[in-house]
Amino acid sequence: MSTQPLVHGFFDPDTATISYVVIDPATKAAALIDSVLDFNQAAGRTNTKSADKLIDCVQAAGATVEWIIETHLHADHLTAAPYLKHRMGGRIAIGAHVAEVQRTFGRIYNAGDDFATDGSQFDHLMRDGEEFKLGRVEARAMHTPGHTPACMSYLIGDALFVGDTLFMPDYGTARCDFPGGDARVLYRSIHKIFALPDATRMYLCHDYLPAGRKEFRWETTVGAQKADNIHVKLDTGEDEFVAMREAKDRHLDMPRLILPAVQVNMRAGHVPAAESNGTSYLKLPLNTF
Ligand SMILES: [Fe+2]
Q1: Quick one: average pLDDT of 195-206?
Q2: Residue 19 lies in a domain
Q3: What spacing in Å lies between the alpha carbon of 168 and ligand 1's midpoint?
């Protein structure tokens, strides 16, 4: 049996995202999952306050970053992966189906021929079932699409990082209305997760504080989700889930940062090349979403 990793969650109140530092206690190998690059949209300015908290945590533990992992190509925040790699080392990984998402959004942003749509901006593309290690802890990548076609969950020891598939049991599940999203596919991915042992610790990418709860939470278990998730329990039918999810998705607004976020995240967190005056620019596709 492999040792179990230490998990530290960091909540970003601006985007309701939780970033994780995962550490193998034996070797002090660390993985950073779903980092956030703070972005002031009005000023067009980024800063690294959130990412620096992850660095502080790694340094306080005396750990070494091996992996910088994305559960998916996020639409609600910019990733700090390149900054973290520059400061701490490690390899940036995302699901191999990211190429599909890059093709879709490359067209939407009319990104041009210099934008590769084969995932080559990332250091490593994780495949479904791929096994890897964090220090001595055994880890496995699971393709869990539905929210997006490239969504992955990562099982590191007994800790599962599910990205945007399930949220806390009292909040439910992720939306499926982004390009390439599919509620039926999400249901089947959730059942892959439900097949894991009930005691598996589960860590979420977001918490939006449902009515009636006062504190943000991001840790639960597979067993708790199967018993209590308000959208999908173990015995919820596929058609019932799909009808519920699609009805909810018809009324959702686009995330506030989707247009800057996807444009940067599809380049593995790099901003478009600077123009002749040395400034990088982001595009806004008009009347597309
Ligand atoms: Fe997401």
Answers
A1: 98
A2: yes
A3: 15
- Place 1 in a pLDDT band, splitting at 50, 70 and 90: very low
Residue of 58, 56, 60, 145 whose CA lies nearest to 97: 145
Percent of the chain with pLDDT over 90: 97
Q: Please write the tens of the pLDDT for every residue from 225-256.
A: 999 999 999 999 999 999 999 999 999 999 99
Residues 6 or more apart from 157 whose CB is under 8 A from it?
A: 2, 3, 4, 5, 134, 137, 138, 139
In angstroms, the CA 3 to CA 280 distance is 44
Ligand 1: distance of its center to the CA of 278 in Å? 31
CA 75–ligand 1 middle distance (angstroms): 6
**Cβ-proximal residues to 56 (8 Å cutoff; 6+ apart), any chain:** none
Can you give the CATH number for the domain in which 237 is found?
3.60.15.10
- Mark out the alpha helices in 62-173 (DSSP H runs): 81-88, 98-108
Supply the range of the domain harboring residue 38.
6-262
The answer to the question of residue 168 being in a domain is yes
Q: Give domain status of residue 273, yes or no.
A: no
- Centre of ligand 1 from the C-alpha of residue 115, in Å: 22
Question: If you measure from the C-alpha of residue 99 to the centroid of ligand 1, how many angstroms do you get, rounded to a whole number?
Answer: 16
Distance 196 CA to ligand 1 centre (A): 22
| C-alpha 151 – ligand 1 centre gap (Å) | 8
Q: Into how many domains does the chain fold?
A: 1
The pTM (predicted TM-score) of the whole model is 0.97
**Residue 285 maps to a domain:** no
Centroid of ligand 1 to alpha carbon of 258 (angstroms): 10
For residue 71, count CB atoms less than 10 angstroms from its CB and return exposed for 0-12, middle for 13-18, buried for 19 or more. Answer: buried
Distance (angstroms) between ligand 1 centre and the Cα of 277 equals 33
